Give the backbone structure.
Amino acid sequence: MEDTVAQQPDAQKAPVFDNPDRNLAMELVRATEAAAIRAVPFIGRGDKNAADGAAVDAMRTFLSTVAFDGVIVIGEGEKDEAPMLFNGEHVGNGRGPSADIAVDPIDGTSLTAAGRQNALSVIAVADRGTMYDPIDAFYMDKLVAGPEAIGVISLDQSIGDNIRELARAKGKDVGEIVVAVLDRPRHAELIEEIRSAGAGTRLMRDGDVAGGINAARWESRIDICAGAGGTPEGVITACAIKALGGFMEGRLSPQSDEEHRKVVAAGHDLDRVLGLDDLVASDNTYFVATGVTDGQLLDGVRRKGPLIRTESLVLRSKTGTARRVIAEHRAEKWLEPGSSRG
């Protein structure tokens, strides 16, 4: 054939073909798959701690097999609160690239416990020393959107102005813009401003990592994700947005006097708008998520006769790739003898 890629000069010059390297995320996805599968018996059972504990144990076990030297920058607490994956913990087999790690074995433990949608198992990775460390800062205002939003919207503008400017950039009517917001009392005014501007809302019970990613995906119905959510989740989301070529800003937003005091004492500037490069400085980020329960981003874990089916999203910023990984696992390898749950 005359038109093969190998015979096209432009394709030969493309940087992705020059020095193909190992995609760490393709190994990390086994850890999120394991965490999601192990959480399934606790879906809808009302015990979020049991679900989280099972996911943590599975994720830690599989992370130990990955060929890298990872340090958890964003985990689930201090070392004496085991079995959580704690801040400062080393993961991986110690051989390979040095990396910062952010983990959330279940983003949406309450969703899992209640049997609701949009729970994920998540890992984000960046080069060592490049992840923003949100110590003592538990909440931040976030603004996330797709590539059209770059240079167009900002946390320094009102949500109404952001909606109008993004609508213009995307060639949409304002009434077509949809904004995802966590359904919290603190967002009552924000929600009213969005609707007063003429846009629609998608209220999320939990899981603003998925909300942010959906805002940056070209095929999603969501145009913007806005509002105050977890700072750790913000850094995790930033790793995904880098791979998607989208827009993201954050600004620390303490939700209590105690948090405010700690954040100021730690030297954080509450007026500073953090751009994507502030949240994660590396241009070589990985993001992996596996669905625990069904959601807009991913299907949850499903039992298919003798098989367990998982769906995962694997993103890498260096190559600009987004992969959906559908895996079928033999249930007998994952279930305890006599168990009927997958």
